């Protein structure tokens, strides 16, 4: 089992810990500007965490009808939604621990990185391409 620990590193204090997942955890991402919200993802899972009064509480993501593919990367969007890139090449957009949008077949073979920038979102995959999305997550272009 993988354990998630939150530290106040300046003082060398462990603030909280909890079991993150039984399988491999690929990424941990704090919500920008937040000291209480973070997400972990990896082998067939995503988990949304809140740190309150030194207690770390996690909620597993609900995939609904979408594939429980490995979640290889994660980024917070400016509106606090989360986007993950999957091993199956899709982007999933999450709100309240549920998939609200699935953008299919973005990178055949897997999405390795997502990066939010002021104009929208960039993704990179095993296909060697970078795909640009606008702020509404509409595909704008792909660069090889």
UniProtKB/TrEMBL annotation:
<dbReference type="GO" id="GO:0008017">
    <property type="term" value="F:microtubule binding"/>
</dbReference>
<keyword id="KW-0853">WD repeat</keyword>
<keyword id="KW-0677">Repeat</keyword>
<feature type="domain" description="EML-like first beta-propeller">
    <location>
        <begin position="2"/>
        <end position="142"/>
    </location>
</feature>
<dbReference type="InterPro" id="IPR055439">
    <property type="entry name" value="Beta-prop_EML_1st"/>
</dbReference>
<dbReference type="Pfam" id="PF23409">
    <property type="entry name" value="Beta-prop_EML"/>
</dbReference>
<protein>
    <recommendedName>
        <fullName>EML-like first beta-propeller domain-containing protein</fullName>
    </recommendedName>
</protein>
<dbReference type="InterPro" id="IPR050630">
    <property type="entry name" value="WD_repeat_EMAP"/>
</dbReference>
<dbReference type="InterPro" id="IPR015943">
    <property type="entry name" value="WD40/YVTN_repeat-like_dom_sf"/>
</dbReference>
<dbReference type="InterPro" id="IPR001680">
    <property type="entry name" value="WD40_rpt"/>
</dbReference>
<dbReference type="InterPro" id="IPR036322">
    <property type="entry name" value="WD40_repeat_dom_sf"/>
</dbReference>
């Amino acid at each position: 089992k993988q354990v998630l620990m939150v530290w106040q590193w300046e003082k060398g204090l462990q603030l909280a810990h909890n079991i993150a997942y039984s399988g491999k955890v690929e990424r941990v991402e704090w919500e920008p500007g937040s000291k209480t919200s973070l997400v972990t993802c990896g082998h067939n899972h995503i988990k949304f965490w809140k740190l309150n009064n030194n207690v770390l509480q996690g909620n597993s993501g609900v995939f609904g009808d979408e594939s429980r593919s490995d979640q290889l990367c994660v980024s917070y969007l400016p509106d606090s939604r989360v986007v993950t890139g999957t091993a199956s090449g899709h982007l999933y957009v999450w709100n309240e621990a549920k998939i609200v949008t699935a953008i299919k077949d973005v990178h055949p073979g897997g999405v390795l990185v997502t990066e939010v920038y002021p104009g929208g979102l960039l993704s990179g995959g095993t296909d060697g391409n970078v795909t640009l999305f606008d702020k509404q997550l509409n595909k704008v272009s792909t660069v090889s």
